[in-house]
């Protein structure tokens, strides 16, 4: 093996694991990951448990990493980031190599989140929020005006929960996973009830239901559909909000701050808020009983039809397909399902687009008596688990590697001082 080779005759400079990690700008565990990938060779310390590394080899790898980072940001192409979390291809997507739809339909949101974080399945796992964290988050949320959006509430709750965690700056894997398992239920617990008492026990989907729907006794099919929606939305590769989270983690922001970065992006109408637009469109179609005049108004106003098409899926969005199949088992969802089908068929006259997950979420929220913003809340709570997975992955990389170079297009200097 390479780590057993004898030392060369020439005195070579050796680095400890800590020194190699500092030079590469990564954690010590990542140094050993480089060894396992064949990118570095190591030599065991005689009589000790540690390893040493050839300084020239480490310096060459550091230069190569810097070149790769510079090339990806200045080449003019799309930014590419190595990740082992989610793969999207051929109208399907996978969490750590396993079909995401299969996982989401067979396991709870919490179990899928654990799989995404650790690559291990923990059947029956539930997330519990510390009382102190919930109390400070609720107090902060209660100060907001009634018209505050869901992401406003979640951002404030995240910041408040961070203040209750004096160890939030610990970026070790165990500490970040501990944060994830308490932050997500804290966010749900901080949301105001939807017309009846909060539920703070049981599966996360059941607790979230009491914040979204005024219906006190949901049927099991509705709860399972909500739980599956959360699991389907856990992650979706490098979406805009996820990239923001990785940039924050690259700067070594703690997990709460990284999640806040994601929440700041998810509010955009082209991202997490898109389901609210689809909800309103669906309600208009239900009110008029026909999609044609509603679609005509949207097109006349120059607006794209929400809930249709996805740049990563030339065919059908697998998340929408899975949710529609579950919604068909809920009798009261039939009118909204028929309206959604009418929207797709009417729009297909000028643009053959498939329904995406936003339209499926709109059917869920409309048929369950939830407000238009409910889809955004589901999206944000679900995606928090994915953001944590990406933050963990980024903490193991070289700091500040996501620092693109600006292509200056302003006035050529030197310019005279302004008067």
Structure notes:
Helix content is about 55%, strand content about 5%. It has helices spanning about 15-25, 30-35, 55-75, 100-105, 110-120, 130-140, 150-165, 175-190, 205-210, 220-230, 240-250, 255-265, 275-290, 290-300, 320-325, 335-345, 355-365, 375-395; strands at about 15, 40-45, 50-55, 85-90, 90-95, 100. Strand 5 and strand 6 form a beta hairpin. It is globular. It starts with 13 loop residues before the first strand and ends in a 24-residue tail after the last helix.
Q: Roughly how much helix do the residues carry, as a percent range?
A: 40-55%
Give the overall form: globular
- Taken in chain order, the helices and strands follow as EHHEEHEEEHHHHHHHHHHHHHHH
The biggest beta sheet reads:
3 strands, antiparallel
Question: CA-to-CA gap between the ends?
Answer: 69 Å
Radius of gyration: 25 Å
Main structural class: mainly alpha
Q: Quick one: how many beta strands? A: 6
Low-pLDDT stretches are: 1-10, 72-77
Strand order of the largest sheet: 1-3-2
- The fraction of residues assigned to DSSP E strands is under 5%
Number of helices: 18
Mean pLDDT across all amino acids:
91
Which keywords apply here?
mainly alpha; 419 residues; single chain; three-stranded antiparallel β-sheet; disordered N terminus; 6 strands; 54% helix
